[in-house]
Structures are given as structure tokens and as C-alpha cells.
Amino acid sequence: MSSTGRRADHRVTFAVLATGVIAFSLLQSLVTPVLPTLEAGLGTNQSDVTWVLTAYLLSASVFTPILGRLGDMTGKKRMFVVALAALALGCLLAALATDLTVMVVARVVQGIGGGVLPLAFGIIRDEFPRDRVAGAVGAISSLVAVGAGVGLVVAGPIVDAFSYHGLFWLPLVVLVVAALAAQFLVPESPERTAGSINWAAALLLSSWLVALLLAVSQAPSWGWGSAEVLGLLVAAVVLAVVWVLVESRAVQPLIDMRMMRVRAVWATNLVALLFGAAMYAAFAFLPQFLQTPSSAGYGFGSTVTESGLLMLPQTIASFVLGLVSGTLAQRIGSKVVLVIGTLVVAAGYLAFALAHDSQGAILAGSVVMGAGFGLAFAAMSNLIVAAVPPSQTGVASGMNANIRTIGGSIGAAVMASVVTAHAGAGGLPAESGYTNGFLMLTGALVAAALAALLIPAVRRDPATHAEPDVALRHPEAALVAGGTLVGDDPE
């Protein structure tokens, strides 16, 4: 319940959730285009400054599912406030940082806030009228892509005006306001999952995620065939197998393996892996392409600010189509929207791979990519939310977000290897590296669209056109004691 003892209007709740999610997604991308500035400001080198990204990634991968589970157990609103507070504290530390060590610690603290997204989905499911859930989830999902795009757009002007410290002072103000608003305006979730955190499972989950993400994030600099990378990959596989065995036998698992075996869940997670690989790789390398001096035979020599502005239409398209996605899902189904959105993004990537010699072509391709992002992001989140009971929403959507992040790490690392495979003029990557890289990402998106076809079709309510929860469609997926799922999706 809220502090007033009444349920808040769902539109107020949405505004608070949207503010928190935008701040979180901004912090994912703000530092990417200004790494050289951070390198100089923190007195470090090109290799070590990448830990500003890696530390955040590793921390978010560990805490996202844990906060999702804690939200299901103790209250989603409570953990949403905790996640925002962690983001705010991390911003404060980063804003004050003058050396790499403090900055990396700050980014680790910020990573705790990775639970913001699954907790927001859970709150929406608990608080919104049923016919508004799909639209709200779609809008919040689109804000992830929008926030990431806005981060790329505004990073340059913020650094020019306030130095790199401004990258964290401005989100800090937003986060403090969002945390206070969440505490006093958002009602506490009525749904609870009984039990406690399985800390052995949490440790194993953290261990294999850290091993995997550390390997793929450092592979471009350490070498894919290096002993360090191969050792970490082997460790990740072994630890992941042990984690699955422990979770499968646990009375109170951190992540219910029976839930993960539901076809609507695992198929959507497979799409998330492939989609994340393509999306985050593009966010990392499209600005780099635009900033390449034209003397290399390609690129436009754009500044950080100019490259961000060239990506602004993509951000706008993501937002607009994200708002439309919920309405489309009610009419034609989230699965169809996801397939269409993924193929639209693939078309944008293909256009960029084949035609990138003018800013007009870049803008056109970016708008197409952004439109697909908005459609697919929203539909993916809706499918996960609809596929599990309310008490599993946080952990299921947290794992989906996590798997998308893992895909992003793999995609960015592989893209880096492809782009830098051959040197061109002045030691810069050859143009063919970007062409081959975006063709590879196009293939990943086509594979994601094919994977989306594996998601079971959902019969919509003829009266409301809404997609019912899987627990309502299939009695065998109903909750049993302890909040676990029984059986699999038979479709």
C-alpha cells in the first residue's frame, strides 16, 4: 500500500516507473561515446578504461535476477526504491571520482540498479487494469531503447558543458526524485512468493555470469584463443551446469527451472539473446563508424555530439513505435509484433551494411532500426510477463533482461573482432570490417525472427482483445505452494 493507504492512480505509477527506467537506461549508454574523455580525465589507458563498461555489465548481470526475486518475495515497490537508491549512490560516487578505481567501484554500485526493469514490469502487472498492461509494458520497454539512444545523443553536449562529472550529476538528480516519488506514490505489490533467497544458487549464478561476461568482454584485447579467455569460458560452462543442477533440485530455487522450460519463456529468452547481441553491438559501433575521419575512405569525422544527433531519429522512432506496439499486440498478438519488429531491425542493419556512404543513408537506416527496436522490445517484454504467474514476473523478466545483456556482451565482443580484423588507412579498421560486422548482425536478427516463431501463439480474449496470462490459459501452469510452476506449455 502507499503511504496514504490507498492505491495510487496507475498513470501516476507509470510516470514514476518511467522516470526510473529512463535514468537507468541512460546510465547504460552515457559513457560509451566518451570513453576517450574518461581515459584522459581518470589518468588511465585505453585498455583499462573499458572496465568502466565491464564493471557495470558484470554487476548488473549478477544483481538483476536477484533483485527480481527479492521483489517477488518482499515487495516489488520496496526493491524498486532500493534499486533506484543504488543507482543514485553509484552516480554520486562516479560524479566525485577522479581515478579509475573509484569510478569502477561506482559503476559496480550502479549495476545493482539493474533490477529496475523487471521490478517495473512486476508493478505494472500488479497495479494496472488488465487491458492496460500490454500497452504499459510496451511503453516501458521502449524507454530502454530510447534511454540508451538518448544517452548517445546527449553525452557529448553534457561533457562539453560540465566535463565527465556531469554525466553522473544530472542522472543523480533524476534518480533522487524518482526514488522519493516511488516511496510515497507507488503502492506496494499485493503479490508475494514464499521462501527465501537460495544463496548457493545466487553464488553459482553470479560466478558463471561473471566468468562468461569477463571472457567475452575482454576477448578482443586478450585474444579469443588466449588461455585466460578459454579458461574463463570453460569455467562458465561448468559453473552453469552445476547451477542448473542445484536449482533443479532446490526446494526454493532462485530461478525455477520448470518455469524456464516453459516454451513461451525459453523461446523468448532465445530471441532476447540474439536480439541483444545485435542491438548493443550497433549502439557501440555505429557512433564509432560515424566518428571515423573521412580520410579513412569511409566515415564522416563527426564529433561525439554530431554522431549523437545523427542517431536521434533512431531514438524518436523507437519511442513512437514502442507506444504503438501495445495496441498492435492487442490486435495481432505480441508474437507477430516481435517477428515483425525483429525483421524490421534486420532490414535497417542490412541497409547500413550495403549503403553507408552518405549521412542521408545513415539516417534512413537508423530510423528503420529504431522502429524495429521499439516494436520488438515491447513485444518481448509482454510475452515474458504474460507467460508466468504474477509471483514469478520479477525473476522471469529479470532473467530475460539479463540474457539480453549477455547477448549484448557477446555481440559487442564478436563485432569488435570482426571490425578490427583488417587495418585500413592510418591504422583504422578497414571499411569491410563494418560491412561484414553489420551483415553478421543482420544474420543474428534473422535467426532471432526464426526463434520467435517457436513462441506459442496466444489466443486473445474476444471481448477485450487482451492476451491472457499463461496461468489462465493453461491450468497446469498455475501456482502451487511456494510459487513454482508445474509442467510445461503444451503448445
From TrEMBL:
Every Major facilitator superfamily (MFS) profile domain range: 13-460
PROSITE patterns documented for this protein: MFS (PS50850)
Classification via Gene3D superfamilies: MFS general substrate transporter like domains (1.20.1250.20), Multidrug resistance protein D (1.20.1720.10)
Principal location listed in the UniProt entry: membrane
GO molecular function: transmembrane transporter activity
InterPro entries assigned: MFS, MFS_dom, MFS_trans_sf
Top-rank lineage group of the source organism: Bacteria
UniProt entry tagged with the keyword DNA repair: no
Protein name: EmrB/QacA subfamily drug resistance transporter
Source organism per UniProt: Modestobacter versicolor
Origin organism lineage: Bacteria, Bacillati, Actinomycetota, Actinomycetes, Geodermatophilales
